[in-house]
Amino acid sequence: MKFFIDTANLDQIREAQDLGVLDGVTTNPSLMAKEGITGRDNILQHYVDICNIVDGDVSAEVIATDYEGMVSEGEELAALHSQIVVKLPMIKDGIKAAKYFSDKGTKTNVTLVFSAGQALLAAKAGATYVSPFIGRLDDISTDGLHLIGEIRHIYDNYGFETEILAASVRHTMHVIDCAKIGADVMTGPLSSIEGLLKHPLTDIGLAKFLEDYKKGN
Ligand code: G3P
Q1: pLDDT tens, position by position, 107-124
Q2: d(Cα 55, Cα 61) in Å, to the nearest integer?
Q3: Could you read off the pLDDT of 139-185 as tens digits, one per residue?
Q4: From the CB of 133, is ligand 1 less than 6 Å away?
């Protein structure tokens, strides 16, 4: 299972990279705005800065919502760095753009996916990643993890190579449940990765080992 961090915060990206378990980064316009990154040039530079910190794929989202606009913006994003994955919204023109980029070998991430049917279309278009938003489904009393299971089942039925990128992950149990179901990737905040470290018996056990060592030395 790949671990992506879902942020545009460079310090958090560095921290996750330093832990040695980071496989990539996802961003979106809201995450960029949260970090105060505004203006086209600054946003493009920020993507390059992120690519220079991590080794893996970095999703960069288009703002255009029409096919021609998405293609031209996606080309510009893809040209920034070899690690860039063009992130496209799950709308009709987004699917057409995913097919365009897939045909020319450019990686894509189809985002804002909330149903199995949308995920099936994204796979048919040859998307590299599909991003079902599990937390936002949970927010409206719908089982986000159930959707991950449905997509896994459909993709396995036909051998689709599109990777299931569980997005809108909010906490460690989302990560563990996605791993059980077989999501290929999860993207979440740093806390959802670092939270996996924690167990009180580990801390109690380590304190006891060190205490006993000191007694004999
Ligand atoms: O990866 C998708 C993500 O950015 C959305 O997360 O927590 O805003 O639903 P959230």
Answers
A1: 999 999 999 999 999 999
A2: 19
A3: 999 999 999 999 999 999 999 999 999 999 999 999 999 999 999 99
A4: yes
Q: How does DSSP assign 9-66, residue by residue? A: -HHHHHHHHHHT---EEE--HHHHHHTT--SHHHHHHHHHHHHHH-SSEEEEE----S
Both structure tokens of 120: 């099936």
Report the predicted TM-score, pTM, of the whole model to 2 decimal places: 0.96
- If one residue of 3, 57, 136, 164 were mutated to test the ligand 1 pocket, choosing by the most ligand atoms within 8 A of its CB, it would be 136
**182: how many CB neighbours lie within 10 A of its CB?**
15
Task: Name which of 80, 21, 69, 4 is nearest 46 in CA terms.
Answer: 80
Q: What whole-number distance in Å separates Cα of residue 209 and Cα of residue 175?
A: 30
Q: Please tell me the total number of residues recorded for the chain in this structure.
A: 217
